[in-house]
TrEMBL record:
<feature type="transmembrane region" description="Helical">
    <location>
        <begin position="12"/>
        <end position="34"/>
    </location>
</feature>
<feature type="transmembrane region" description="Helical">
    <location>
        <begin position="40"/>
        <end position="59"/>
    </location>
</feature>
<protein>
    <submittedName>
        <fullName>ECF transporter S component</fullName>
    </submittedName>
</protein>
<feature type="region of interest" description="Disordered">
    <location>
        <begin position="253"/>
        <end position="296"/>
    </location>
</feature>
<keyword id="KW-0472">Membrane</keyword>
<keyword id="KW-1133">Transmembrane helix</keyword>
<feature type="compositionally biased region" description="Low complexity">
    <location>
        <begin position="276"/>
        <end position="296"/>
    </location>
</feature>
<feature type="transmembrane region" description="Helical">
    <location>
        <begin position="225"/>
        <end position="245"/>
    </location>
</feature>
<feature type="transmembrane region" description="Helical">
    <location>
        <begin position="112"/>
        <end position="131"/>
    </location>
</feature>
<feature type="transmembrane region" description="Helical">
    <location>
        <begin position="162"/>
        <end position="185"/>
    </location>
</feature>
<feature type="transmembrane region" description="Helical">
    <location>
        <begin position="89"/>
        <end position="105"/>
    </location>
</feature>
<keyword id="KW-0812">Transmembrane</keyword>
Amino acid sequence: MRRPRETGWTGWVLGGGSLLAAAGFAWPLFAAALPEHAQAAAPIVAFALVPALLVALALTLDREMYTAKTVALLGVLSAVGAAVRIAGMGVGGVEAVFILLILAGRAYGARFGFLLGLLTIAVSSVLWGGFGPWTPFQMFACGWVGAGAALLPRIRRPRLEIAALVAYGVAASYLFGLVMNLWFWPFAVGTGTDVSYAADAPLGENVASFALYTLVTSTLTWDTVRAVTTTVGILLVGPAALAALRRAKLGRPGRPARAATPRSTSLPGGGTRTHPSTVPGAAAAPPTGPRPSARA
């Protein structure tokens, strides 16, 4: 079965929107602003991503996503992901939701994985009450995690595919922490330290300061726990979950199957067979009728 194409005009537009979102993440490296100005600008940058999220949502729902079964599965997996994410809140770095995003994105494609990431964060934020300037950034970052798994090369050997997904999950865990640190880094720490943002510093110096900041505050702690959690989860449930998701994908509704009709047992003249024969060419049993009475 051929995999659905992820390219086309919707793919290009979604790619362009992702580039704009990436610019929103990386704005501290290109916009000279003092930390107090950056703190005031952060909500503006965050909510400027909301229209891009709406456009991405509309464009992703193309014909490939119109089937009722796909929409229902997307809703179910979004609810499951939201529940998993809420259950893991408060435990530093445990992001079991990455397991779901990676496996579902791999099985159903980049657009499905992207949408699943967006909706998982949205639903969990509504249920948990965690909406804030960080929410649009989390939605895009998790959408990228789900979509990236589908963009890996096709691997026919199941064990090699699981190994590739594990490697991808580790890389995605660290990159997620890095980009989520980037957008609020200018006002996360004060001025005058080795990890502080300097508005008048050259780009290379700010990059080095940010790298040290994210290494100390995230990479060695939260991101490492997330990478370990994702690795263990994919190794434990990956093969079975991928097989189940792909079976559900192959079972998408198409032409209705023809109902089996029972073989007629009637004979010419209105008689019936006592035991329908299964042997080709076998003689039919004589028609049944009233037996003569023994007393006649």
